[in-house]
Design goal:
Length: 81
Amino acid sequence: MAIVSDPRVKDVRCTDENLEVLLRDGRKISAPLSWFPRILAATPEARAEWEPSAAGHGIQWPKIDEDLSVAGLLRGERAPM
């Protein structure tokens, strides 16, 4: 049985310490919130307002003016300081 990979964003959550991204294929990416200074500095309400971008291959937070790619998260890239 072939495993189907679908690295598009299904859900995003921010805890006090981590950014957690659930992909459509069931994988979960977790990274320290400290890697993303704009998201870290934002209110919990602004963090909760995200939308998929690039056909689901990215995440955008309009109120924070932050955009992240799933590919970058999978590579473990931090946001530029």
